[in-house]
């Protein structure tokens, strides 16, 4: 009985580690849910609005939202990046005075959420995410009114199930779940192995199969429930003390859901393994060890776990690199936080009247170094052109280079001679200039361009032509630095580049003053009989919001890698213990005879190492990963765990036999 209690304690200890991992996952899900629906301000729904097809101007859109918010008591709060700070946080802008606090706490507790007045939206798009912090009973009416006006509305309500589904779809989280399943399968295998002899004796004694199965599953399930309950209580107290008691109910809902799923899977696995490894009459007749039937299952679990670790290493590393790239992109967006674009709400006829004034405005902005250009086309956009060693060409001015290289301690661009550019690419640049240049300019304008490229190890951002809302990063971009925007490009081109965010201006106030000086503000346009409007909008908002989640996932990817490595180590150790138990009759006398552990374990270790190497080669051939070094390092870790596990397990079994516990 004491021996069986020891085995139960082993299961409790290992399952505590498993449920602790699930508690970390539950905390992450709770944090993600709180980021989407901040509980401190009572958010239960969020809306994604797009006014592109509605016909509303920016001013009209905000007026409509304010009117509906007041009438329906929704407590709408728009999410926007905190451009005024050096961090990567968000701020929450109320459309009306809702009585919300100026600050509120998050689950993660890193920074306080800031709530500001609607003046912050004076230079923002109405499109984007909104939280509903008030009454949601008339939210459907609000959605219907906007949809009838041509507004695209996407609604999402707070749901733990949705958060779970989202997490499962993320590769980094999926590896944690798969690792949990592998670990619980190994626990089931361990439990059945220690119960095998007693189960065989009960079968011989005539006990009903159903009773034997029920006893085995019940004792195993009780051990899991004790572990799950202990972890849930301790974790809930920790969350309440260090994060806030308001989050405990959500955290427990997530954790218990995960625990129920894992326990259900473990019970199902136990039933399947028990049925497929049931003692046979042949085994009794030939006096074979009771655990022999489990050997094939143990091999399958070890192989699958090892393949899982090796196969997920490269994708997890790629996801980490992608997250790191997003972090770099967000840092660049932060450098562009005070840059604004000009949004045109006009028709073609009126645009023709405004283009000369826009050209003069750009000339004025250049004189005070308050305008930046980045207009890029990539190799994929011009497949018929030989780009040579470059992936893209970007027309920029010095102001853009200054913005994206702010803070660099050493030069990160170097000049490129015309002779080092392929003739075909140089001709393409010449033709581009010929099409876009201002009339009356000298024909040798391309000779005034300065060509640069990033120094080795540097990646610089550029805005893609026709869509400057996204940044393209590269270390093989050819920069064509134009000496003057006004002198290089005609008014129509400048207007087009402004409308696509390829030309941006510095500062909201300064840009509005530019519009006024060149009679492009609303009042001056109305005096001319022009109904168009030019709005000044921050360009960095969307880019920062999109990059924030990727930055948040960086450490989560690390967590998944560590969790999978730990799970594989535990699963391998338990599997090695099963093997050592099966081979104890052989290992014990050999060790007593003075044979070294290396010689005793040599055959099984070498065999498994060879199989492991073959599996690694197969995975590499199928995946063809770019980061093959990561796969090899992960494989080396796995192959190192195998002999260590066998050595520890064999010694443990030897001591157990010596004390007559095995």
Task: Please provide a written account of the structure.
- The chain is of the alpha+beta class and 662 residues long.
- It is built from 20 helices and 17 strands.
- The strands form 3 sheets. An 8-stranded mixed sheet has the order 11-12-15-10-9-16-8-17. The protein has a 7-stranded mixed sheet with strand order 4-5-3-2-6-1-7. A two-stranded antiparallel ribbon has the order 13-14.
- A hairpin with a 2-residue loop joins strand 13 (460-464) and strand 14.
- Helix 5 runs antiparallel to helix 9 (295-335), helix 9 (295-335) crosses helix 20 (628-658) and helix 17 (540-582) runs parallel beside helix 20 (628-658).
- The chain is elongated and about 105 Å long.
- The mean pLDDT is 81.
- Keywords: Membrane, Transmembrane, Transmembrane helix.
- This is ABC transporter permease.
- The chain crosses the membrane at residues 172-192, 220-242, 254-278, 299-320, 561-584, 605-624, 630-654.
């Amino acid at each position: 009985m004491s021996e069986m209690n020891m085995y139960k304690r082993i299961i409790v200890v290992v399952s505590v580690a498993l449920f602790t991992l699930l508690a970390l996952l539950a905390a992450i899900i709770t944090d993600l849910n709180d980021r989407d629906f901040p509980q401190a301000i009572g958010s239960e729904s969020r809306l994604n609005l797009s006014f592109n097809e509605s016909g509303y101007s920016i001013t009209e859109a905000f007026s409509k939202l304010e009117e509906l918010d007041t009438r329906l008591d929704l407590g709408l709060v728009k999410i926007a990046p905190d451009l005024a700070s050096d961090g990567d946080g968000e701020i929450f802008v109320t459309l009306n005075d809702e009585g919300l606090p100026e600050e509120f706490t998050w689950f993660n507790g890193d920074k306080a959420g800031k709530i500001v007045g609607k003046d912050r939206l004076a230079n923002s798009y109405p499109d984007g995410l909104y939280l509903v912090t008030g009454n949601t009973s008339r939210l459907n009416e609000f959605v219907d009114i906007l949809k009838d006006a041509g507004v695209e509305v996407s609604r999402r309500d707070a749901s733990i199930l949705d958060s779970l589904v989202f997490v499962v779809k993320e590769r980094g989280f999926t590896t944690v779940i798969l690792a949990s399943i592998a670990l619980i399968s190994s626990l089931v295998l361990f439990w059945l192995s220690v119960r095998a002899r007693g189960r065989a004796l009960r079968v011989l004694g005539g006990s009903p199969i159903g009773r034997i199965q029920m006893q085995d599953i019940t004792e195993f399930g009780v051990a899991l429930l004790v572990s799950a309950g202990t972890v849930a209580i301790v974790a809930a107290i920790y969350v309440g003390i260090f994060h806030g008691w308001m989050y405990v109910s959500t955290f427990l809902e997530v954790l218990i859901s995960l625990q129920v799923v894992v326990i259900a899977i473990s019970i199902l696995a136990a039933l399947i393994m028990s049925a497929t490894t049931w003692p046979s009459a042949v085994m009794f007749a030939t006096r074979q060890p009771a655990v022999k039937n489990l050997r094939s299952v143990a091999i399958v679990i070890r192989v699958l776990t090892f393949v899982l670790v090796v196969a997920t290493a490269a994708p997890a590393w790629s996801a980490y690199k992608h997250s790191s790239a997003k972090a770099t992109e967000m840092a660049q967006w932060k450098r562009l936080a005070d840059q604004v674009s000009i949004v045109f709400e006009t028709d073609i006829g009126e645009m023709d009247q405004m283009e000369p004034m826009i050209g003069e405005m750009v000339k004025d902005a250049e004189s005070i170094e308050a305008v930046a250009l980045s207009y890029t086309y990539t190799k994929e956009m011009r497949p018929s052109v030989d780009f040579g060693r470059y992936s893209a060409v970007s027309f920029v001015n010095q102001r853009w280079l200054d913005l994206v290289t702010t803070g660099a301690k050493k030069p990160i661009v170097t000049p490129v001679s015309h002779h080092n550019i392929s003739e075909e690419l140089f001709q393409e640049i010449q033709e581009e200039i010929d099409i876009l240049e201002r009339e009356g300019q000298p024909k040798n304008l391309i000779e005034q361009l300065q060509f640069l490229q990033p120094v080795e190890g540097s990646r610089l951002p550029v805005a893609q032509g026709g869509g400057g809302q996204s940044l393209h990063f590269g270390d093989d971009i050819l920069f064509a630095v134009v000496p003057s925007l006004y002198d290089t490009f005609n008014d129509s081109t400048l207007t087009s580049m402004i409308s696509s965010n390829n030309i941006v201006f510095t500062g909201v106030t300064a840009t509005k003053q530019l519009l006024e000086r060149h009679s492009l503000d609303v009042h001056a346009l109305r005096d001319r009989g022009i109904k168009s409007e030019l709005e000044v909008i921050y360009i960095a908002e969307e880019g920062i919001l999109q990059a924030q989640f990727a930055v948040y996932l960086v450490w989560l990817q690390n967590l998944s890698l560590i969790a999978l490595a730990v799970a594989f180590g535990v699963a391998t150790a338990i599997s090695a213990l099963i093997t050592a138990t099966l081979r104890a009759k052989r290992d014990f006398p050999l060790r007593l005879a003075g044979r070294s552990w290396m010689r005793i374990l040599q055959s099984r270790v070498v065999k498994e190492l060879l199989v492991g190497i073959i599996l690694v080669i197969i995975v590499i051939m199928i995946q063809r990963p770019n980061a093959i070094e990561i796969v090899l390092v992960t494989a080396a870790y796995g192959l190192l765990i195998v002999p260590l596990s066998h050595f520890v397990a064999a010694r443990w079994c030897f001591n157990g036999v010596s004390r007559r516990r095995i």
